[in-house]
Amino acid sequence: MQPKKEFDKIAIIGAGGVGATTAYALMIEGIASEIALIDIDAEKAEGEAMDITHGASFVQPVEIYAGDYSDCKKADIIIITAGAKQKPGENRLDLVKKNTEIFKEIIPSIIEYNKEAILLVVTNPVDILTYVTLKLANFPQNRVIGSGTVLDSSRFRTLIGENCNVAANNVHGYIIGEHGDSEVPVWSLTNIAGTQIENYCPICTKECNYNKEKIADKVKNAAYKIIEKKGATYYAIALAIARITRSILRNENSILTVSSLLEDKYEVNDVCLSLPTIVNGSGIKRVLRLPLNKKEKQAFQKSAIKLQNTIKKLNL
User: Fold this and answer.
1) Considering the entire predicted model, what is its pTM?
2) Which stretches make up the Lactate/malate dehydrogenase N-terminal domain (predicted)?
């Protein structure tokens, strides 16, 4: 495994709730040496950078500042969080046309200054915008990554942990497919301590089986509930972004459910969706093929068709 580089630079496009909280999470974890916050509202970016920087004495040395697209130069990773926000009552796909037009301005502005970075897309609908970014940037597909269902998988594990009264990091399970309404919980491979979830507690098997749909529904609708209550989500997604970023900069070969361009995965092609993926210093090293059961495979294919039909309507 390659050693961590002495200096790592990250540029964040968008200094709203997600972008600013991501910068904070990266600072807290000591992941980067330099973080540039870039936003159409320069005053907002400057205020966020100042606020975060004033905690510099409590963390590892890091330079955080507001900048413009020229500050994408020499960035190892460029994180894109800018775009129209999801409003109460909207689903992620409702944002697709608005944010595709915004990306048609963002991506050329990035590649004017940096054609070597890894692009990490967070803006929703993340799977479609990862595909849009790949087409607009014309980067190798391993260097265009969507945050995908990394957060959904964490929600999945957290809720199972609460249900089974074990720590979330001892639950192993994935949400695959779309980061959205057609996401697929892979129950057939979900386990605690190597024991499949339905066998973990034989005494309460019936109760646990009953809770499966309830848990999956809570995961799928979590963002809607949070937006309804407080207007936006940003803490947990910032931690998810920091986790992906760490895997790249430290060349970890971690397995994360990021979104990327798929080629012949369960008969799915030419669409960006999430599957467990080895992520390292090159970005996407390899997308894994899980032994899904028939129902899960069909749900994954249905998720792909849904996004492909939406992509066909875009002027790419």
Assistant:
1) 0.93
2) 9-146
